[in-house]
């Protein structure tokens, strides 16, 4: 299966979920046009509280639609945009990508992968018990975060459902994703 955009979402206001749109526009160095998390510096409230001058490595949130199927098996109904992502993908192992991977989306847009989304308690506020489905532990005790990845916009462009996603891996050695 080819990697594609399943849905796109944005919200002008702070809220956990983001409504689906017919398209979104990515702006180089900023994020999703009209989205509350767009900007050169951090916009996520917890990050702003810690240090409002730090660079925004979370301009675009991507989640794999396959996660929704996985959590449905545990009784959780989740749809694109429900977990606050901007781009819902299908057919790509987002969590297995290394830092610095370029995702060429549609005809113009390029997103550079910066790290993993760190799932927070708001996920349980959305659906009680869902946090345990998107965070687990490996046998060695390390956390496994499954709530998507974050990236920065390197080249802007319009992104729509159905757009192809092409993966361009960085030079080796690859750096495993960690939370950003």
- Which H/E pattern describes the elements? EEEEHEHEEEHHEEEEE
Give the N-terminus to C-terminus distance in angstroms: 29 Å
Name the quaternary structure: single chain
Mean pLDDT: 95
Radius of gyration: 15 Å
Uncertain stretches of 5 or more adjacent residues = none
> Reading side by side through the largest sheet, how are the strands ordered?
2-1-6-5-11-8-7-13
Residue share in helix: 10-25%
β-strand number? 13
Q: What is the strand content?
A: 25-35%
Structure summary:
With 180 residues, the chain is mainly beta. It contains four helices and 13 strands.
Describe the structure.
There is one protein chain. This protein is mainly beta. Helix content is 12%, strand content 31%. It is built from 4 helices and 13 strands. It has helices spanning 45-50, 66-72, 122-126, 131-134; strands spanning 4-9, 20-21, 24-27, 31-32, 60-64, 87-90, 102-105, 109-116, 135-137, 143-145, 149-155, 157-159, 165-168. The chain has an 8-stranded mixed beta sheet with strand order 2-1-6-5-11-8-7-13. Strands 4-3-12 form a 3-stranded antiparallel beta sheet, with no helix packed on it. A two-stranded antiparallel ribbon has the order 9-10. The chain is globular, with a radius of gyration of 15 Å. The two termini are 29 Å apart.
């Amino acid at each position: 299966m080819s990697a594609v955009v399943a849905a796109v979402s944005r919200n002008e206001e702070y809220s956990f979920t983001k409504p689906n749109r017919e398209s979104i526009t990515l702006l180089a160095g900023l994020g999703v046009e009209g989205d509350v998390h767009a900007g050169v510096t951090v916009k996520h409230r917890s990050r702003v509280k810690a240090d409002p001058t730090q660079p925004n490595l979370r301009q675009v949130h991507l989640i794999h639609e396959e996660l929704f199927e996985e959590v449905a098996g545990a009784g959780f109904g989740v749809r694109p945009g429900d977990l606050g992502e901007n781009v819902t993908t299908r057919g790509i192992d987002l969590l297995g990508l290394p830092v610095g991977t370029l995702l060429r989306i549609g005809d113009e847009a390029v997103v550079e992968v910066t790290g993993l989304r760190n799932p927070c308690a708001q996920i349980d506020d959305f659906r009680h018990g869902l946090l345990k489905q998107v965070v687990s532990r490996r046998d060695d005790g390390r956390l496994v975060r499954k709530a998507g990845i974050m990236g920065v916009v390197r080249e802007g462009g319009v992104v729509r459902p159905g757009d192809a996603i092409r993966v361009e891996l960085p030079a080796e050695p690859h750096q495993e994703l960690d939370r950003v």
